[in-house]
Amino acid sequence: LGAIESLLSAMVADGATGGRHRSNTELIGQGVANIVAPLFGGIPATGAIARTMTNIRNGGKTPVAGIIHALVLLLIMLFFGKYANLIPMSVLAGILIVVAYNMSEWRSFKGLFRNSKSDIAVLLTTFLLTVIIDLTVAIQFGLLLAVLLFLKRVIETSDVSVLNMVVEDDSDEMADEGESLQIPAGVEVFEVNGPFFFGIANKLEEAENLTGKIPKVRIIRLRRVPFIDSTGLSNLHAFIDRAAQHDTKTVLSGAGAEVLVKLRKAGIIDLLGEENNCKDIQCALNRAKIMINGE
Hints:
Elements: H1 2-17, H2 23-36, H3 49-57, H4 63-79, H5 81-84, H6 89-104, H7 106-111, H8 117-132, H9 135-157, E1 159-163, E2 165-167, E3 180-182, E4 187-193, H10 201-211, E5 217-224, H11 230-245, E6 249-253, H12 257-265, H13 268-272, E7 277-278, H14 281-294
Parallel strand pairs: 4-5, 5-6, 6-7
Antiparallel strand pairs: 1-4, 2-3
Helix pairs in contact: 1-2, 1-3, 3-6, 8-9, 10-11
């Protein structure tokens, strides 16, 4: 959580200065400091958004500003600690109000309400939890909500379709310009669009049920699948097993390098045979014709 807060502080600083922080350097430095500090009676440290913005507002632009800031605080504690205790809380509260206003970027906050309702919900939830509870809890809930919304969007934009006609060229750039190929009788082509993960794994079975017939060969086109998880692999394996029970052969088409590695590790390529793993749809259709004519 300290690392997250430090990275948030760095991002806020980037927005104010126009610079770009190095996340790895930030986290490694903070990790080393938090390992060494307890050896001398210190407590874990993290980046502070309020002090970072105060430093920037007063002209600090480089890491040297942070070092000077720390040294000044050390000198105040060592030599003027008893006088610092005499500063009224109302004065400190006023300073914090001014700092909070300066770092609020309320104009940018107002502009965020032009986003989708789901994004606004995440924004308001995180904002209210920061005010009511604290930043740590707000970050946890904000990240959780953002992940859930991202999964929802991926599920909505991913599907499995049964094709009546296919395009010859497997590249995304030429997909609409390639020559259309007829699917032979007795062959079905299922195309998976998007990540093949637990969120859409059941859509393959749903597409299978919609066809209402048992073909001789089924081609599963994976050209637009960037990755596949264990649930997707399990459902794909079950799909192949169901097809085999009805003497239906399965051919894979257009699997990318990363997807192909996982298919091999899961034993799916061995189950189908290397000859039934085709690099493109033309190859897959030719393979399907050979399998049908062979019968």
